[in-house]
Structures are given as structure tokens and as C-alpha cells.
Amino acid sequence: MAFAAFATTEAQPQAPRRRSRIALFLLLPGIAYLILFFLAPLVSLLLTSLQQPNEFGDIGVYDYGFNWQNYVDVVSVYWEHIVRSFGYALVATVLALAFSYPLAYFIGVTARRWPLLQGLMLVLVIAPFFISFLLRTLAWKQILSDESFIITSLKALSLLAPDAHFTGTPFAVIFGLTYNFIPFMTLPLYTTLERLDLRYLEAGSDLYASPFTVFRKVTVPLSMPGIVAGTLLTFIPAAGDYINASRDFLGGPDTQMMGNVIEANFLVTLNYPAAAALSIILMAAILVIVGVYVKRSGTEDLL
Amino acid sequence: MTVRPLPQDPIVRSLIVQARKAQLNRRTLLAGGGAGLGALALAACSGGGGQAKPTAAADASKTDATLNWANWAAYIDEDDAGDYPTLVRFTEETGISVNYEVAVDDNNTYYGKVKDQLALGQDIGADLVCLTDWMVSRWIRLGYTQELNHDNIPNLANLVPSLRDPDFDPGRAHSVPWQGGFAGLAWNKEAIPGGLASVSDLWDPSLKGRVGVLSEMRDTMGCIMLENGVDIAGDWGDEEYGAAIDLLREQVESGQVRNIKGNSYLEDLKSEDTLAAIVWSGDITVINAEAGDKWEFAIPSAGGTLWNDNFLVPIGSPRKTNAETLIDYYYRPEVAAEVAAWVNFITPVAGAKEAAMEIDPELAENQLIFPNEETLSTAHIFRSLTGAEEQKYQAEFQSILLGS
Description:
The complex is a heterodimer.
Chain A: H1 21-49, E1 52-53, E2 62-63, H2 69-108, H3 115-126, H4 133-143, H5 149-156, H6 170-194, H7 198-206, H8 211-222, H9 224-240, H10 258-268, H11 272-296
Antiparallel strand pairs in A: 1-2
Chain B: H1 10-21, H2 26-45, E1 66-72, H3 85-94, E2 97-104, H4 107-119, E3 128-132, H5 133-142, E4 175-188, E5 211-214, H6 217-227, H7 238-253, E6 257-261, H8 265-271, E7 276-280, H9 281-290, E8 295-298, E9 304-312, H10 320-330, H11 333-343, H12 352-359, H13 361-364, H14 373-377, E10 379-380, H15 387-401
Parallel strand pairs in B: 1-2, 1-3, 5-6, 5-7, 9-10
Antiparallel strand pairs in B: 3-9, 4-7, 4-8, 4-9
Helix pairs in contact in B: 7-15, 11-12
Keywords (chain B): Periplasm, Signal, Transport
Pfam family, one (chain B): SBP_bac_8
Subcellular location (chain B): Periplasm
């Protein structure tokens, strides 16, 4: 273990009794940074979410107040978008896991004998990052447009109805989310699977477990940290994503997610309290969902 | 779960003890509250909804021969080297060096970026900004613009009469038009050989799922209201607007209208996801030149909307005279013609058409760039909205865009 490297076996167990001033001094920039760039904006967001419209004000003019009604309003107007955001994020996370696990297993376990192939495949997983996320999403929009080769072929094969289309539908948005977040799922899975001790698998089969049982009882539990990290890295940004679902990219008017609603309220209708209230709800919901998930999956040490 | 015994390793052991201590107790809660209060004080500095109008910055143009101009993409003549020929000549002539920045890609996002500084009367880093009528109307209403000295802009006499007295800025005291355009119908000539005549043609069942409309509320709603027989420049209210909203909502919910977009609608026209749409005139000239002569633009039979982007001098700019000098320069007909020939939008400068005749006679006949009286009479300007109306109507329109 990393810490053991610094310890000598004969070291006396002595707890540091007084706090070193230097340590506190070194912490100062970090604390100042957090207060300035995390805590202050968060408090400002919270205050904005409680603002009330100025009676005589122009568009976008609000006064500080305690208008908690904003939260009720946004939930009653945008509950569909809230449900949709988490629904899409969940589906995309499950799909990304389903695609990434075999991939990561192949790279991390099967390909161990061929380091060159392993390296090459890792590069292929990471390569999409060399191109902007926006450009890749736009490219998919072109590839999946109505007159594209893929869609016209599917129609010619009668796999799609003649008047069906793909862009602007929930499928397109979930497709985009899954595609864009697969590397975030694959890499953590790879790092845990790469360290998987194959002797455990051998032990499992020595004890007459079927390959499926070995996978279920040995491989999955041992790769749990990777699964949890990967799903969190996918689910959290996917729930707040506003690019894939944007009408300018893969979405349409009936696929709008919370991020799009926040954007529209903030930039177009200048309804800052509504945008702030939705942001707080998004953050709180993610915090609760992630907390429950991590607790249940038994990997608290990740947090 | 059972409590694990502490590990043997002394360093890990002490780390765990430290971590346990750091868990939330009353003291840390109080400390956290203190930090929260500090943050609160910081957050309060960001200011709230004040109503006082900011005051204009002092003009330092005499000693500072520079100018920052924030404009939209592809909105000025540009040569192959990436220079702006008309601007280069302006600098040679006046000695004012211009920092031209493509800083505006959307009225709303630009406003979102600069509004807090404007409210405080600070310099936003631009001395001249080009924004669309309705946004200009908001800036003037909120006192975010400086009053122009028309003595410094003698060429303003070349401004076409129809644009001299908009309802948001009588007498053009605060704003001067830069370029304008129509919103109307465009269609793919191969897919729809018969073309479209009115906005109602967009609701034809054969076009289901292949129709697009603009996310610019005034253009989309303006075209629909005109089709409903409403004079959008005149006196209309909730009833007329509501009827048009209901119509649009029905078409979006039924799937007739596939998407509602800003500038990116051009990609949909090119990829043929959209076959017919409400669009901006200048764009169609550009994509026809780029991707083959495939689309046609027409002002709907019931009329289209006419909009203008206008120069304005932000309240915190210390270079107002320089800005006025530049506006005056671009109101010379020959300069305006050169710009119009490149950007394909409508120039507000009278005499530019005659000047364009010398550059390219065919161009001068293009009704989308140099419209005659007859064409202009079919285009209407969406009336200015009050703050409350803007909030209400925009919220209704956005609810369709968000599918709620």
C-alpha cells in the first residue's frame, strides 16, 4: 500500500497532538478557492432561487425575498422534464454499462497477453476525446438525418416506417448520451478489471462454479468499484446534459431535459429564480440518488 | 455492517482517527455556518434587481483613437486573407484602429454575458454593438445605451425613411440600423417543385415531420399572426397572440413541425431533415451559393417580418465619438453597397443600390438585398413589447419549444 511505503515498522504510534500552523497555512488557498468559487456561487444560486419578481420591474428584474413558491412552480410546470432527465440518464447509463463491460473486460482481462493490442484498444477508447464533444454530436446528427445512408437503408429494408425519422426523437437523445459517455464508463471499468486477480476465477471454477456463477459471484463484486465509478461518471453528467437533448443537436421539442429548461429560463425568458430553483433541484436530486446508490452498493469508501 | 478494527499501520491509523474527528459535529457545523455567512456576504456583492439607470461614461475619443466593435459572424465584408477591406480603409482614413470582434452569436446569450456590467454602467469591452430591434428596444428601455450625437453622423441623412422612426427609438436617438432582413418561407425545390405561397402551406399533411420554424419568437409568431390576418406592427394583444400560439402548439404537438431552431436550421435544410421552413432571407442566398441552387425563398402571401440589427453605443463606453465616426463612414452609399454585396442582407442606406449597380448589376436587382417599395410593403415590423408583455409572450413561446 502507498502509505505503508512511508512507514517504518519500528515507528512509534504517535498521533500529531497539535495542529501545525504551517498545515493550516497551506490549506488556506484551497479553502479560499472553495469559498470563492464554490460556496459563494452556491449561496448566490440559492438566494436567486428564492427571489420574487419586482412589481414594477422590467423583464428579468427580481428582488431578494423568500419566495419558496418558485420551487413549487417549477416542479409543477417542469415535472415532466425532471422525470425525463433522470429517465434518459438512467437508460443511457445502463446501455453504456452494457456496452462498456464486455469491452473493458476484453481490454483489461482477455487482452492481457498482448500488451500492444491492449494499448491500441485503450487509445481507440480515448481517441474520441481528441475531437470536440459538440462536433461529434453534430456529426451523428448528420449521419442519422432523414436522407442519410443509414436511415434510407433501414427504410428500404422496411425496418423503419417510411415516414419515420430518428433525429429529434428520444431514441436519438439516448443514443447521443450513451455514445458520449461510453468512455467515462469504460475507463474506470478497465482500471478495476485490469487488476482483477485471475486466480480468484480459477478458484471459483475449482469449486465447481459455472462460468456464469463465477462471473456473478467473483468478477462482478471485484469490479464493483469500477462499476460504481463508471455509472456515477455517466449518470451525473448525463442527467444535467443539455447538448444531446438540445433542439440544435439530437433533440426536438418533446425531448427537452432539465438542462435545456434551465438554459431557456436563464437566457431567453430571463426567469432567473426558476432557473436557479431548477438547478438546486437537479443538484439535490443527484446528491440524494448518488448517496442512496453508493450506500446500497456498499462502496462508501468511494465518497 | 460490523465495525472494522483499526488497521495496524500507524499512519493509516492516525489518518482514520483524523477523518473521524472531522465528521460533522456541532462545532464544525457552526464553522460551516460561519463560512456560509462569509459566502453570503460575497454573494450579496453580486447585486440584485436594482432599477436605477446607469450613467454614461465620459468620452475619451480625442485622446484614444481606438474602437471595439462587437458584431455577428459573417456580417461584414471579408477578403481571403481574413481582413475587412472597408474597415482597413476606415482606419487609413480616420486613424482610428478598430478591433472588430465576432462576439455576438445570439441576442440572448450576448445580453446574458454583459447585462450585469451594463446595469452598473461599466465598460463591457465593446464601444459599438449590433443587436436586433427587440433587444435594442430592451437596452434603450433599461438605459443601457448612450444618446448619439447626430452632428457627428451627417450621413445619417441617407437612412431610408421607413426606418427613421421606429417605436422603440423615435428619431434614432440611440440606435442606427446596420443590416436587416426578412423572415419568410423557404423550401427545397427538388422535394416541393410547386413551392409554397403561405404559412398555411407548411401545415400540409404531405410535409408532416419535415417542417421547421425559427426559435426567434418574433419571426415565427409574426409570420403566423400575419397569416391570421393580424397587423403585427399595429395594436394587438393577448387574444391575437394566444390564437397564434395555439396554432403553433397544435402543429408542434402533432409532429407536423419537426423542430424549432436558431441559426442551426441551415444544417437541417442541407441534410433535408427539413424540407420547408420559416427562415431568414439572407441565409438562403448564402446556402444556395454554397450547396447548389436548391432552395427558394419567398415572402408569404400574407406578409413576412422585417427586422434590423442596429448599432448602439453601450452606456459604459468611453469612445462614443469614434463610434459615431464609424457609423457615419458606413452610411456612405458606396461603403454600404460593398458590405451589402458581401453579407447579402438588406442595407438601410439609401443610394447603396445605385452604388451597387456599379459593382454588380445583377446583385442590385436582388429583391432580398435591395428590395423595392413593392417588396418592402409586404414585410412588417413586429411591434415593440413592454417588459411585462415580453416576459409573458416569450414564456408562452418557450413552453412550446420545451414541450411543456
